[in-house]
Amino acid sequence: MKKLWISIVAGLLVIPMLFQAPAQAAAKPIRIIIDGVTLSTDRPPVMVNGRTLVPLRAIFEAFNADIKWNQKTQTVTASQNDTTIELKIGSKIATINNKTVSLDVPGQNLKGRTMVPTRFVSEALGREVGWNPAAQIVTITTPVPVGGNAAPVSGVAAQDISDYGDGRDLQVSFNRAADESLVDHYRVLIVKNGTTLNLSSALAVGSYNYSVAQVTGANPVVKLNAATRTIDGDLIKNNQGYTAYVVTFGKGNNTSALSSASAPITLQNKTVPALGTVQAKDTSDYGDGRDLSVSFNKLADESKISSYRIFVVKASNSTVFDLGRANAVSSSNYTQINKTGNNISMNLSSGSRDTDGALIKTGVGYRVYVLAVDSSNAANNVLSPASTALTLTNAGVSNLNVTDVNDYNDGRDVKVTFNHASDETNISQYRILVVPTNYYSSFSLNDANNVSSANYTAVNTSGTYTEQILNSSSRDVRGSLIRNGTSYKVYVLAAGNWNNSGSNVLSAASTAITLVNTSGLSAISNLSVSDVNDYGDGRDLRVSFNHAGDESYISHYRILVVPMNYYNSFSLSDANNAGNYTTAGTSGDSTNQVLDASAKDVRGTAIKPGISYRVYVLTVRNGSYQGTNVLSEGSAALTLSAKFPVTSVTNVTYGMDNGKVVVNFTKSALESNISEYRVFVVPSKQSFGTAEALGVQSSYYRSAVPNGSNLSIAAAARDTNGNPIVKGTKYKVYVLAVANGSGVQNGGLSDSSEEFEI
Questions:
Q1: Using CA atoms, how far apart are residues 340 and 356, in angstroms rounded to an integer?
Q2: Nearest CA among 734, 629, 718 for reference residue 677
Q3: For a pLDDT cut of 70, what percent of the chain falls above it?
C-alpha cells in the first residue's frame, strides 16, 4: 500500500506543466479496471500521446488519502498511515518521507482536472498493466496475500438527523465486525427503496457512490455529507425512500462481506418548500452575462425566505454542485434578487460571473441554479434543480483554433484560424486578441473593445475563412511581445462597422497554448538594468542576466540598448541586423556587466543621460546550430541620470614613511565639483568599485580637501574592511573624488595603484 501511495503522488508532479500536449479522444471511452473493479471517475480517462491518463483525485479518494494544498507555495502534501509525500507543482522532484524521488512522466491539466499516467502509477508499484486497444480497457492486477473471511456487520440503522434537503440529513450507524484484524475498512452504501443488493454488485460500486468508515475499534457512526450519492450516482434528497447497507471490506485477499439492509427511511425537510424548474435562455449577442436570461417561479410560501440567489455553474462542475457549495459561493459570484411576490424573469449583467469567479462568456457550457435564502438559518436554504445545459453563442466567428508553427520565439510562431461570421453585413474587421492565460478569467467584451490597435492583429472580412500567422512585432493585449514560455488564449473580436458600431461580438477563447522552441536554443532570463556610475556614457549602465540553461548551441550573447522611441518596432529581425551591441560570453551561469565608454545604442548613437532605454539580449547560435537566434524580452525602461561630472584622479602611487603608507596622486581635472579626496587601502584580491568605496566607514580611510595641487596623503592604519595593515598581505591603493554640494553624482573612483606589501 505504501508503495502505491509513493508512485501515485509522484505522478501528481506532472500537474499543469508549461508544455501541454493535446489530448486525442479515443474511439471508445477508456475504462480502467483495478483488481476486477472499475475505477469510477468524474472525468473519463483520456489517451495523450499514446499514454492513458486518469484523474488524480479519483485515485486519491479511492484510497482515502489526506491531501493538503498550499496555494502560496503551490505545494501538495498527501499522507496515509506512515507515508507522507510532498511535491511542488511544476517540479520533477517529489519527497517521500523527506527522501527525493525523480519523476519523468508529465501529466496534464485538462478541463479543470489533473490527469496522471496510469501505467506510471501502476508499474512503479510492480503491478502488471494490460491494455486492450480494441475494447479500450486498461487492466491493473495486484498480488495480494492469502487471508481469511471478514464478517458482516450487524445492526445497520439509518436516521433522519437534519433538514438540509441532501445527504447531511442522513446518519448511518452499525455494530463493527467481530474480528476487525481482517478488515481494511467499511463502505456505507445507500440504495433507493426497492433496489436489491448482493455482495458482487456492492463491490462493483464506484468510489464516488459510497462513504468510507475506518476501523477504529468502536462501533462506527457515519454522518453523510451534501455530496453523498446513492449507488446509482444520484444525490440524496428529500421525499425519497432509502435503505442502507454496509460492506465489510477485507484486508489483502481476505474476502469481503455484505450486511443486512437497514429499515427503510424517507427523508423529510420541514423548512422551506423546494424550488421548481429553472429556465435559462440565450437572448443577446453581447458575449457576456447580458446574453443570459433566467426565469423561475417564486415559492408559493415566501414567508421564511429573504431573497433568491442565481448561480451560473460551469456544466463541467454541475455534477458536484449542491447546497453546501451554493452556501459557500462568494457574493461576487452570484446574482441576488429580493423576493418580489412575482415570478422572476431577468437578464444578468455584463459583470455577472459564474461560481468559479470567471466572467460569463460565449462558448462555455453552463447550468443555472436558484437558491431560496432562509431569513433565519442558512442551513435551511433550499437549492433548485439545475436548468438544462446552455452554451451561449453569438454572431461572431466559429471554429477558432491556434497552433505553434515556427521557432522564431515571437509572434511568427502563432497561427490563428477561424471561420468568419455567416453574416458580415455589419462587420468592418476581425481583431485577433492574444491574452495571457493568467489574465484570461477577467477578459471581457469591454476589455476587448478597449485594446489598443497596437496590441491586436486586424483581419479583413474577405472570404469565409482566415488562416493568419502573426508577425514578429505582434503583442498580447497587455502590450508585451508574444514569446515562448507564456501561456496564452486567443479571442477574435468581430468589430461592427459604422452601421453597427455598438454591437461588437467577442468569440469564445481558444484552447491555451504555450509556444515552445523545439530547436533547442533558449533566451536568457532575469534581465535587469541599473544606473551605476556618473560618467555620462555607457559606463553608467550595468546589465545583468541569467544565461540559458543549455548553452551547447550558443556562441555568445549580445547586449542591445534600444532607445524607447524605437522600442515599439524592435524585433528579432532588428536584433539580428543590429551592428551596435556589447558581446557577453557563455562562461558561467550569469552575466553582470557594466558597458564601456564607447558603447552605443542599436541606432549607432552614444549612450548618454536623459535618454530612456530598454535593453534586450540576443542569444546567438554557433556554427553547429541551424535554427534562429533568440531574443529576450525587453528590460524595464531606464533613463540614465544627467549629473555633474566628477573626474577621477590619476597617477595613483604609494610610498612608505616610518612604516606608514603614503599615497601620491595627480589631482582631478575638475576640482570645482569635488568636496574631498578619500584614500583607501584595499586587499589586492578584493573587488573594489565606486559602490564599495562609498560604503566604507570613515575610520577606515583618510581624506583631504582639494587645494589646486597634486596631493600626498598618509593612509589610514587599517584597510577598508577594518583590519590592521600588516606585513605579508598584498594591497592596492585607490582614491575616490567625492562630489561637492553642487554636484549630483556620488564620486569618481581612480584606477588602483600597483600591488604592494609593507
A1: 28
A2: 734
A3: 82
